[in-house]
């Protein structure tokens, strides 16, 4: 008879321990979600993504102009030096991207610093036949897509969330309208028609969205809470995009020949 209370007590302790573990895990996840504005990694990721837009645009223009001009003039042999120049500068820019990504996002991207072969001709053949050479060159214009996505997300998400977050400070300014106040209330129409014998039965539904204007402090506080939530979500999405960018850089750039690293090691 004495073993049954002991088993019941042990089960109660196990249930309490499992419940405490779930609460602890939930608290840890909530803490990580809320603490994202206070992490150094967040601002490094944001800076990396904002830099990716102008750098990616410059890379895209350089590679597309250099390759198209070089191929177009290759028939008169003038394009061959242009292609060689584009390849050399592109590899140097890819080396800069390895350094920038490793510094700001901290993924380990190991370059190739030696070419196989003793003669210059053999080294050149080793360079142009290595697929990592072309993946490094292809990464440069591809970075423009990443930079554009990061720039749009950062500017739109951060500006919207921050403007909502400070709404309680300026919602009651004279002559200032805050909220969704379009010239005409948007409408959504849904139409459904069914054939029944020789009749056509139809159903029309029109949903009209009215205006939403913030004129009181409680509404402004609610909007500020939504802005805070949007800010946290935006920062987490930017961190995720930065991690994807770092992974993509490692896949495309790792193992490629890096003249930038060769120069740095010789100094």
UniProtKB/TrEMBL annotation:
Domain Putative sensor, first and last residues per copy: 48-253
Record has Transmembrane as a keyword: yes
Keywords from the named record: Membrane, Transmembrane, Transmembrane helix
Lineage: superkingdom: Archaea
Transmembrane segments: 43-62, 69-96, 144-171, 220-242
Membrane keyword on record: yes
Pfam families the UniProt entry points to: Sensor
Protein name: Putative sensor
Organism of derivation: Natronobacterium haloterrestre
């Amino acid at each position: 008879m004495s073993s049954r209370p002991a088993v019941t007590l042990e089960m109660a302790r196990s249930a309490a321990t499992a419940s405490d573990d779930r609460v602890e895990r939930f608290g840890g996840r909530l803490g990580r979600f809320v603490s994202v504005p206070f992490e150094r990694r967040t601002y490094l990721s944001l800076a990396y993504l904002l830099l990716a837009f102008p750098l990616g645009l410059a890379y895209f223009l350089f590679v597309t102009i250099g390759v198209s001009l070089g191929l177009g003039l290759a028939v008169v042999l003038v394009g061959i030096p242009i292609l060689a120049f584009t390849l050399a500068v592109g590899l140097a820019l890819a080396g800069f991207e390895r350094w920038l990504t490793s510094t700001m996002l901290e993924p380990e991207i190991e370059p190739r610093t030696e070419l196989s072969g003793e003669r210059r001709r053999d080294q050149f053949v080793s360079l142009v036949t290595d697929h990592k050479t072309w993946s490094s060159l292809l990464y440069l214009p591809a970075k423009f897509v990443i930079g554009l996505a990061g720039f749009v997300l950062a500017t739109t998400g951060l500006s919207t969330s921050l403007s909502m977050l400070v709404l309680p400070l300026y919602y009651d300014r004279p002559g200032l309208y805050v909220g969704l106040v379009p010239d005409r209330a948007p409408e959504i129409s849904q139409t459904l028609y069914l054939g029944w014998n020789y009749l056509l039965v139809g159903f029309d539904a029109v949903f009209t969205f009215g205006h939403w204007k913030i004129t009181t402090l409680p509404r402004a506080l609610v909007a500020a809470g939504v802005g805070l939530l949007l800010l946290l979500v935006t920062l987490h999405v930017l961190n995720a995009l930065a991690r994807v960018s770092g992974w993509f850089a490692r896949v495309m750039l790792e193992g490629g020949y890096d003249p930038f690293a060769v120069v740095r090691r010789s100094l």
